[in-house]
Fold:
Amino acid sequence: MSMQLVPITIQVDLECALLAFQIRDAQQELMRLQRELAPLETAFGLFEQKVASQSAGITAERNRLRKRCLQIEHYTNRLHARLLADPDGHLSDIFTPNELRAIGELFGIDVPEEWFGTESRTTTSAGAWEWADDPQLEQPAETLPHDDMDELRTLYRQLAKAFHPDLASDTEEHLFRAEMMLRINHAWHTHDLQAMRDLHSGSRQLLDIGTNRTRVWQLQQLRRDLEQIMQRCTGARTRLQSLRRSRTRALWYDSALANAAIARHLRKLEAEIAQLQERESLATEEFRQAFGQYAARS
Structure:
């Protein structure tokens, strides 16, 4: 009675099959989470859009005033520091010409022309860049003796024939062969005989690896795919939990509650704008006084 030979599936194939099942299950879980997320995301997005549309103008005004106050206070602090450090005006100007122009436009101040010194411009002489064209800086390939050059040429031809990308059986092997050809070509163009010898001595082993590594690469890719899907599932669960626990969730579905909350938000912004306007007025007056003292220095 003859014995029928049964092919034994290697460990890589078994793990690939297991990963494929795990990926399928993870994809189904991700789809389930996305179905639960969809209505919550829609409701939250509509509420957020409503808040943004009704408060866009007043929010922009609040931000503009806040930025203006910070800028004025920054200029004033610099003036006070310079007045303390250089009361007689012996040091250089504190503001650049561009800053002086900006200040003049900001406050309607007529900045004297004599305040604008000659702006320093960094120039580079033509000779400063002559090194860029120096041929000695290029690294030409080292000239090899005749016998070494013949050996290099022979090894190059053998390796190029062995690792030609057209001999690949699939995309992964094609990428491997193309990578090897880059290394071979680099050794050829730089006349690196030792590197070419090393590539040649390990060529058989490299070819075996290149031929058999396709399944290994597939295994690695499946692992990466599973990890990415699991990360997406984790992110979806976190997002789902956040939306469900949101303190504003009731407002997403009740227009009356939403309008009342938006009205409170707008009143808060209006109060903040009033405070910023007062802050701007005080900061402007303080700046004018400091700037006047700075301009009056001897």
Summary: The CA atoms of residues 235 and 284 lie 48 Å apart. Confidence is low (pLDDT under 50) at residues 1-9, 118-140. The radius of gyration is 36 Å. The helical segments are 11-85, 97-107, 146-162, 171-189, 193-201, 203-245, 249-253, 255-295.
